[in-house]
Amino acid sequence: MTAFQDPRLSAERLTVETLAGVDSDVAVLGSKSYTNRAIAIASLADEPTEIRGALISDDTVYFANAVAQFGHVTTEIDHDTRTIHVTPTGKPMKAPEAEVYVGAAGTPLRFLISLAALAEGTTTINGTARMQERPMGDLLAALGPLGVDAVAVRGNGSPPIQVTGGTFRGGRTEISGAVSSQFTSSLLISSVKAEQDTEINLVDDLVSKPYVEMTLASLAAAGIRVERDGYARFTVPAGQFFKGGQVTVEPDASGMSYFLAAAAILGGRVTIPGIGTGSHQGDVGLVDVLARMGAHAEVTEDSITLKGGDLHGIDVDMEAMPDVVPTLAVVAAYAEGPTRITNIASLRVKECDRIAAVTTELRKMGIQVDEYDDAMTIHGGTPHGAVIDTYDDHRIAMCFAIAGLRTEGVVINDPGCVAKSFPTFWQAVDSLREIS
Ligand SMILES: O=C(O)C1=C[C@@H](OP(=O)(O)O)[C@@H](O)[C@H](O)C1
Ligand SMILES: C=C(OP(=O)(O)O)C(=O)O
């Protein structure tokens, strides 16, 4: 069941060859966020689930393996058909003896903290060195009032995290939404299995709101009812059961962004089939942002097409779409005038500090960037080639690869880091070279 491994995933560096224009349909893999939600939900279901069109990448493979460690389900990954089979074993969830390791997968780690709260015993959850810097404290604090003892082993709010479970009472808790929406999503999913109803009160403004909508949509599809008061309060009634069956995952909107960016900066057309107007993925909003910059967009029920145009800078609040900020920053480097991207503090605690990384790497290409704590201004110009460091961050590698399609001499260090969310990324880039 092993898939073809692109040799570029183990290369030290890759020189991107430029392209005169594009006119392509591009196949993007399944949504990372929907696949993660489907795995989490299926791991709590008492019926088998078949996740079709799933993203099979480093993050989701770590997650599928991790949920199986609790013994309540088995997981089987079929690379050829891109299906993940999650099958209940009939056994209760039990804390695994071995540490649960999820690499650089932030969403899975955050989801696992609340899942472990449902398992008898103490679970230790850990990840890469960068993961051990990423914040979890707000989620740990919110679990306490629900009856769960979840602590950072080193007392710093970051992994390794130890969760003593089997005591998920439910009740009322408060959570901050200022750092990550994943904490709220994590509570929403696992509290379905709490002993009593769970009331989750947001004490401040929630960042990355579309991801909570995706969680609610996934829960609703599994037959789960959640009451809400906007983004201030969510109540999850106890005693509900997750439906199994088939779940079909739509293409990943963040992965799509690189190909929309290619059309924007090269000129020509790119169409992404299988995603359109009905999508809850917030990153689809990049289409409108690029249209405001001068590109031409056409969104139907089941496809998104972007055509190039004369690009100009804009002011844009990107709080709802953090993952496509690096993509937008690269497009902005080719636009006329400044692009001010605001409300993006959460980028500092992703796979790398993405505000710092994008600033450093665009400056290497000769672009003026003003860096702020929670914002960036990119002054469009004529980027030149450079060797791009990628900081073990798939999104930095992918967005600068697109710059390399337009600008000679872009070299991407560690091109294999794309495997976190898009192991076929370099093949998808190749597909742009086959004019359709
Ligand atoms: O819930 C999710 O699937 C995600 C939420 C976002 O994180 P934050 O809520 O931390 O911004 C996003 O950056 C991440 O890639 C996926
Ligand atoms: C931030 C990301 O992922 P995560 O938080 O799940 O590691 C991402 O994929 O851009």
**Beta-strand percentage?**
15-25%
Classification by helices and strands: alpha/beta
Largest sheet: 4 strands, mixed
CATH architecture of the largest domain: Alpha-beta prism
**Average pLDDT, to the nearest integer?**
97
Helix content: 25-40%
Strand arrangement across the biggest beta sheet: 2-15-17-16
The overall number of domains is 2
For this structure, what is the CATH homologous superfamily of the largest domain? Answer: Enolpyruvate transferase domain
End-to-end Cα distance:
31 Å
Low-confidence spans: pLDDT under 50, at least 5 residues? none
CATH topology of the largest domain: UDP-n-acetylglucosamine1-carboxyvinyl-transferase, Chain
Give me the count of strands. 23
Tally of helical segments: 12
**Radius of gyration, in angstroms, nearest whole number:** 21 Å
Using the coordinates above, name the CATH class of the largest domain. Answer: Alpha Beta
Bound molecules: shikimate-3-phosphate, phosphoenolpyruvate
Shape type: globular
Pfam families: EPSP_synthase
Catalytic activity: 3-phosphoshikimate + phosphoenolpyruvate = 5-O-(1-carboxyvinyl)-3-phosphoshikimate + phosphate
Binding site for 3-phosphoshikimate: 32-33, 37, 180-182, 208, 323, 350
InterPro entries: Enolpyruvate_Tfrase_dom (IPR001986), Enolpyruvate_Tfrase_sf (IPR036968), EPSP_synthase (IPR006264), EPSP_synthase_CS (IPR023193), RNA3'P_cycl/enolpyr_Trfase_a/b (IPR013792)
